[in-house]
Amino acid sequence: MKTMKFFLPLMAVVLLGTSCGSDKSANAKVSTTEEAAVQVKTDAVVKKSVDQTFEYTGNIESFVKNMISSQSAMRIDKISVEVGDAVRKGQVLVTMEPTTYIQAKAQLENLKVEYERVKSLYETGGASKQQLDQMKVQLDVSTENVATLERNTRLLSPIDGVVTARFFDNGDVTGGQPILQVQQINPLKIKINVSEEFYPQLKIGMNAKINLDVYPGQDFSGKIDLIYPTVDALTHTITTEIKLDNTAKKVRPGMFARVTLSFGAKDRLVVSDKAIVKQVGTNDRYVYVVNQDQTVSYKKVQLGERRGNIYEVLSGVNEKDEIVIAGMSKLADGAKVTVIKN
């Protein structure tokens, strides 16, 4: 009986100890699970109306650019202008050596006299219709030849513009290469590439704001002057020309320009810029989306424009998704999180 009395308290102690040990183990597991959950702050993906204002870059170009050259190899007699000179349409810029032109013109005058002689004989029956026709053909060919030589001897400016380059000097012989370059610098133009998404909204005459780095803080006004008829299959953009008035002659071809176009407003999904994670070594962007089981999914997103402290999201998330905006440095795909409410 004594042995039995001693044994019963001993078993009670053992059972009690086992029970306490189990509680401690369970508490340890709970504590470990809670510690594994990363504390994060979140924000919702929302849809809102966003102004579709876009900035494009390009170089200022002359509205028209002409190369002044002779059609055939000839010696330059005189170049009448210098680089930087303003020229008028029809102004003589270069005179080529005129010997061939003078000879052809003299031949033409002789043919005119001969034609009139044959014409008189034909009217009196002294020449046939065939002879008259042959003489007329010779006269027409010679007339055209003289006109061509005149165009290639006296080189005229085809536009009102400015001489922007000179490639030869007086006395040089050209083989049809350009002698001068003339550009029209009022107005000017800028070529930009606009996403095909906005093709239905592109209109001739649409206003554009233009800014030049050389004139900081100053706005210039332009208008869409030309919309190309095809879409680039690789970039899915449309080449669009902006016309810029340059009456004040402050702008020059070759300057760097920024063009701003406004296409109204569109409903877009937007997220806080704090949510965006850049994949190291790539240009890919990701966000952490909180799932119903309080884990996160690492999702790649396609971003649109940045508007202040928000980004447009074109794909990768849905409206009302809860995404992490703070605490993502400790996260990985599938990680457990605890959302801290503000």
Structural account:
The chain has 342 residues and is α+β, with helices and mostly antiparallel strands. The chain contains 3 helices and 19 strands. It has helices at 2-36, 99-123, 129-153, and strands spanning 38-44, 46-68, 74-79, 86-87, 92-96, 154-156, 161-166, 173-174, 180-195, 207-212, 219-227, 237-244, 256-272, 277-278, 285-290, 296-307, 310-315, 322-326, 337-339. Residues 1-34 have low confidence and may be disordered.
What's the short version?
The protein has 342 residues and is α+β, with helices and mostly antiparallel strands. The protein contains 3 helices and 19 strands.
Percent strand equals: 35-45%
Sheet with most strands: 6 strands, antiparallel, barrel
Which class do the helix and strand fractions yield?
alpha+beta
Q: In sequence order, what are the helices and strands, one letter per element?
A: HEEEEEHHEEEEEEEEEEEEEE
Q: With helices defined by DSSP (H or I, 4 residues minimum), what is the helix count?
A: 3
- Low-confidence blocks of residues: 1-34
- Residue-averaged pLDDT: 88
Helix share bin: 10-25%
Overall morphology = elongated
For the termini, the CA-CA separation is: 67 Å
**What is the CA-atom radius of gyration, in angstroms?**
42 Å
Number of strands: 19
Largest beta sheet: what is the strand line-up? Answer: 2-9-12-11-10-13
